[in-house]
Specification:
The protein has two domains: 133 residues, TPP-binding domain (Rossmann fold, 3-Layer(aba) Sandwich), CATH 3.40.50; 154 residues, 3-Layer(aba) Sandwich (Rossmann fold). Helix content is 34%, strand content 16%. It has eleven helices and eleven strands.
Length: 314
């Protein structure tokens, strides 16, 4: 039997979708892998070969430390379990615990365990995890796939004109304005597309003039996205999910450097950011603070046209 590994991800949806790249590579090379993540468990039927468990309580740390030959832990400054896992693991078996940094920063190389995984903020999360498997772990079988297997009965992009609009995210500061989403949706509707909004909750999204779809769990939402033609949304986990399902994505993001690492990257998509000509001087941060104003509906329309062309030739 191969070595046992525990992969401890951040709990955001995008984090889980991307971290499965590491779990999938370990599985392909004969490792017994348990992935710990709180968001993607209801999609277990999309990756039956990769066991995903909810995060354990801190009281389970002694058992966890004795359960695996290798530990891969995404750094987190606020989670007490992660902090203790890194502290105890590095004290007991420093070479068997790898700390992964998943945030773009030119100062990332100064982090205490940066050399564990050599994260490059200029590359996507999925590509960084693939390179970890190739350059650090030297695994013989390498893939950028996160191992998703569509459940039986689904037809990929069955509704090619359906555009899933995801106008929300975990943080309001990441959201392109509501009125701009509605204006873009109206434009696409007039061109023969079928916009459907998937905001996660109807609060504030009633009577908007477009279909609003809600889903009881992530599995059902993934099925809907898988059979849609496109996904348009904010910098959030659903973009990563759609990309991993090979659905073309249009993503609004406030900063290009963030997008380089955190934009959906499994399938070809387009990220819309403010122009780099707009000053972002420290202390003012005009581009960061007012990015929503600097991404116009006109720019979004042109970007969607590019996305359609990209999808037609991929």
């Amino acid at each position: 039997m191969g070595p046992r590994a525990g992969v401890f991800c951040h709990n955001g949806l995008g984090d889980g979708v991307n971290c499965l790249v590491l779990s999938n590579n370990l599985h392909l090379n004969g490792w017994k892998v348990d992935t710990y993540q709180n968001s993607i468990g209801s999609m277990q039927n999309w990756f039956p070969h990769l066991a995903v468990n909810p995060y354990p309580p801190l009281s389970e740390l002694p058992r966890i430390l004795n359960s695996y030959d290798w530990f891969f832990v995404v750094q987190n400054d606020t989670d007490p379990f992660v902090l203790q896992l890194i502290q105890e693991g590095k004290r007991r078996f420093p070479e068997k615990l790898k700390v992964i940094y998943l945030y773009p920063s030119k100062n990332i190389v100064n982090e205490p365990y940066y050399n564990d995984c050599l994260t490059d903020p200029g590359l996507s999360i999925a590509e960084n995890l693939r390179l970890l498997c190739e350059k650090v772990l030297h695994l013989p079988k390498i893939t950028k796939s996160n191992g998703f297997i569509p459940p039986p009965g689904l037809i990929h992009r069955k509704h090619p004109k359906r555009v899933a609009f995801h106008p929300t995210s975990a943080r309001e500061t990441r959201n392109w304005p509501r009125e701009k989403f509605l204006s873009l949706a109206q434009h696409l509707k007039e061109r023969g597309f079928d916009p459907v909004f998937i905001p996660g909750t109807k609060n504030g999204w009633e009577n908007i003039g477009f279909e609003v779809a809600l889903f009881p769990n992530l599995d059902q939402l993934a099925r809907f996205i898988y059979e849609s033609g496109y996904l348009v949304g904010n910098d959030s986990g659903l973009g990563h999910l759609a990309s991993a399902l090979s659905v073309p994505t249009l993503t609004f993001c406030r900063r290009k450097t963030w997008a380089n690492m955190w934009a959906p990257s499994f399938h070809k998509g387009i990220v819309v950011t403010p122009s780099s000509w707009i000053p972002n001087i420290r202390g003012l941060r005009l581009r960061d603070r007012h990015w929503k104003k600097f991404i116009s509906v006109r720019k979004a329309k042109k970007s969607f046209d590019r996305l359609v062309s990209l999808a037609a030739h991929s």
